[in-house]
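Q: What does the predicted 3D structure of Glycosyltransferase family A protein look like?
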Amino acid sequence: MDYYIVIPIHNEDAYLEQTLTAVALQTLSPKKVILVNDNSTDNSETVIDRFVQEHSFFYKLNIVSSSEHMPGSKVINAFKKGLAILDDAYEFIVKLDADIILPTNYFENISNHFKNDSQIGICGGFIYEKQGSGEWVLNHPMNKDHVRGAIKAYSKECFKAIGGLKNAMGWDTVDELLAQYNGFKMHTDDELKVKHLRPTGKAYNARAKRLQGKAMYSMRYGFIITTIASLKMAIKNNSIKSFWNNMAGYINASRNNNNYMVTEEEGKFIRNLRWTNIKRKIGV
């Protein structure tokens, strides 16, 4: 299957060479890889230029946006800039982070999953992060069907159906909810172990960590589901502060009548889906 990759890059020279080397060594090579250099002030562009010279499928795109590393808005803005210079001659498209190492058979396996099941809309492996002991340990939400935002692959049909990616915090949750709304499913392959070189959220500032509640509002979760989801997150992170941050973000968004990411009909589907999953997990 033909596929494109878009990699947003902002000051990633510590990790970028390993990421691009892993892409270059794939047993199923990409048709195009757009390397979106987003206002980098380190040596990222030097690394990009070398790979563009050495491999015909790498392309560089320089853009200038905010230097502030905010989840959602900055990375998806860069992704969309890269997407804009691509055509539609692909069968699946990938949003990839610049600080990961893929197994060499990663995209060959992803391609096979899409090819063998047309209902799969979003596909990916699992993220592992290095501990102080040197051991690589699985870092994943409790929902094993979720594909992490660092390694998301979308079938062309699904990507078009969900209207691409939302330029906001929560983009890598709402995409899966909308995929299900449009009749697609997620597929994760636990044999595809991806090394994440920088732990999730390390580059985000304190303000960014308070945006999750706002995202829950924009996905039309409603107050009760937001409370349950925030408690679940606080328990997973062993941080009561994250619960209060989430709830404050939700309440502030509600008071300010912030825009929604989904329609009323999509929101109703999302709430019903969330309640179904909650009841299933508690055995109701």
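A (community wiki): The structure tokens above were generated from the sequence. The chain is about 40% helix and 20% strand. The mean pLDDT is 90.
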